[in-house]
Design goal:
By secondary structure, the chain is an alpha+beta fold. It is 28% helix and 28% strand. The relative contact order is 0.19. It is elongated.
């Protein structure tokens, strides 16, 4: 946590992952793991560290991201809590992966740690790693409170634009108000959200939609010729970009779909049973597990406990980090035997 790894795509001038990747690589080499660097963008490396198996067993990928969001959280320890930027999201998980992999050498199959860059923005790291590496299963170690997370929501971003006619504010006969034209769109958005609440998922609940940003107009004494609304739709498994498009087009305005990330739902029952006996849970936030699953790798999410992700007082429970490492090692021992 003491190494600054703020994602520069989120905070201009952020340190990025170069220093933390160098630390992780040195630690893994000292632990006897095979180390490879993958750099999908300049100064944005990921580390792939492999505990090579003796052959004949299945491989297991352990995934954790090294980047953090902006801001500072001074590092300190209070009891079993370690406070610091990224402690919970998710360097505690990364530490558990490294410890487990270092102890897992000599199993039948390989244990592959993918310590990736850029998860907090565009997932450049995992996307690039999956172009060259795979596994027979994957545990994404986002913090889950030591419970198996078997589903998470996806998201889609969209822009809706309404147009008017610019004119002097004294000439209503010439002007048309683009901001007023956005009014029915906003009303329709609220009605759409209400309809979405009638859907549900066993561990994720309903999908949602909200207005994120709105801008329009030129200055006080003019009719605005343009109004721009940015919208975020949180999606459930089975909801695609086309579903989102069909929902938004009737609201009016000119629609442009932007970045989207797919939802995730695990079918890796054997792997789920190896990491937790508790009732599986879902998570509303998006994770790289959607990418590993889309690559055909059976995936579950499992990680330590704590709180404060992206917040001013982030902390991870150190006892749960130790327990997480033990569970990862135990799962590897059975899966890769």
């Amino acid at each position: 946590m003491a190494i600054d790894s703020v994602n520069p795509a989120l905070v201009p001038g952020g340190a990025g992952e170069a220093e933390i990747a160098a630390f992780v690589a040195r630690w893994c080499e000292a632990a006897g793991l095979e180390v490879e660097l993958d750099e999908p963008a300049p100064g944005r490396p990921s580390v792939i560290a492999t505990a090579r198996g003796r052959g004949g067993g299945r491989s297991l990928m352990l995934n954790a991201h090294m980047d953090t969001v902006g801001g500072t959280v001074p590092q300190r320890r209070e009891g079993n809590r370690l406070y610091g930027r990224g402690a919970f999201d998710m360097k505690g998980s990364l530490a558990a992966c490294l410890v487990a992999a270092a102890a897992a050498r000599g199993l039948g199959g390989d244990v592959i740690v993918t310590a990736v860059c850029d998860e907090e923005h565009s997932s450049l790291g995992t996307t690039s790693v999956l172009e060259r590496h795979t596994g027979d299963a994957c545990i994404v170690t986002e913090p889950t409170g030591l419970r198996a997370c078997v589903a998470h929501k996806g998201f889609a971003w969209a822009e809706i634009e309404t147009r008017g006619t610019a004119a002097h504010g004294s000439r209503p006969d010439l002007g048309e108000d683009a901001i007023v034209r956005m009014g029915p769109v906003l009303t329709g958005l609220a009605e759409l959200h209400a309809r979405l609440q009638q859907r549900t998922h066993p561990v994720l609940g309903p999908p949602s939609i909200h207005a994120s940003l709105i801008a329009g107009g030129q200055e006080m004494s003019s009719y605005p010729e343009r109004c721009r609304l940015l919208v975020e739709r949180r999606t459930l498994p089975g909801e695609t970009d086309e579903v989102v498009r069909r929902e938004l087009e009737p609201l009016g305005g000119a629609l442009t779909l932007g970045i989207s990330r797919p939802p995730f739902e695990s079918t890796a029952d054997e792997l789920i049973a190896l990491v937790s006996d508790d009732e599986p849970v879902g998570d509303p936030a998006w994770m790289d597990s959607a990418l590993t699953a889309a690559a055909g790798i059976p995936t579950v999410v499992f990680g330590p406990a704590g709180a404060g992700a992206h917040g001013a007082d982030e902390w991870v429970d150190l006892d749960s980090v130790v327990r997480c490492a033990d569970v990862l090692l135990g799962a590897a021992g059975q899966w890769c035997a």
